[in-house]
Amino acid sequence: MNTATHGTHGHEPAGLASTKGGYTLAPTTTTLVPGKTAPFTFRILGADGMPVTAYDVEHEKRLHLIVVRRDTAGFQHLHPELGADGVWSVPLTIAEAGVYRVFADFKPSGGEATTLGADLFAGGDFRPVEYGISHVAEADGYRVRLDGELMAGMPSKVTLMVTKNGRAVTDLQPYLGAYGHLVALRGGDLAYLHVHPDGEPGDGRTAAGPEVTFFAGFPTAGTYRLFLDFQHEGKVRTADFTVAIA
């Protein structure tokens, strides 16, 4: 697997529109109930208005679905199942009220890699969360440190160091064909970047930790939220960071 940044087309950030390049993200409903698990269903419509049913497999899945509240709380990385009728479905639970953004990251067969976004609404008492700049995250007993000189408009090397109980984790497990997946969301409008690491398991040069390295292209200066998914001891954990891009 080569280094790749999904969700970008040229210099235009992705995930800001529900319709782009002839494809439309069409949720069956835009209303969620906090604390209740229910199927979330949607379709990807082509330019002819018909559901798309043929997708290329990208990183072991035909579609990646990101769900996050607009204050970037409650991040989830999900993998829906596709029905023969072109309807995607996945069980979804959101803990609290607010406006949520969903991103569908996919590559239709014969088409370009595309990321579409849409808003969902969960009624109730909404209390937004503010995040200060942080390059260190605690996740289920793991400590992850983010290093790198992050700059806008050029590839930035991002290195994440995973430790547990003060010891380097050197036996990370492949998750979706990689040792880590990194999603970046720009503050304010939630412009979307889906970045994969440099190298892949079994390529003879990529170690199974403790470092996972990415090359990310941040389109503009500003504050970004970064979410790292990694797998160890059979469980996927998510570490989150807040960084300022010069």
Description:
- By secondary structure, this protein is mainly beta.
- It is 0% helix and 48% strand.
- It has no helices and 22 strands.
- The chain has strands at residues 5-6, 8-9, 12-13, 19-20, 23-27, 31-32, 38-45, 63-69, 76-78, 81-82, 87-92, 98-106, 114-122, 136-139, 142-147, 156-164, 167-168, 181-186, 192-195, 211-216, 222-232, 235-245.
- It has a 5-stranded antiparallel beta sheet, with no helix packed on it. It has a 5-stranded antiparallel beta sheet with strand order 4-5-7-11-10, with no helix packed on it.
- A hairpin with a 5-residue loop joins strand 18 (181-186) and strand 19.
- Residues 1-10 have low confidence and may be disordered.
Summarize the helices and strands and which ones pair or pack.
Blueprint: E1 5-6, E2 8-9, E3 12-13, E4 19-20, E5 23-27, E6 31-32, E7 38-45, E8 63-69, E9 76-78, E10 81-82, E11 87-92, E12 98-106, E13 114-122, E14 136-139, E15 142-147, E16 156-164, E17 167-168, E18 181-186, E19 192-195, E20 211-216, E21 222-232, E22 235-245
Parallel strand pairs: 6-13
Antiparallel strand pairs: 1-19, 2-3, 4-5, 5-7, 7-11, 8-9, 8-12, 10-11, 12-13, 14-15, 15-16, 16-17, 16-20, 18-19, 18-21, 21-22
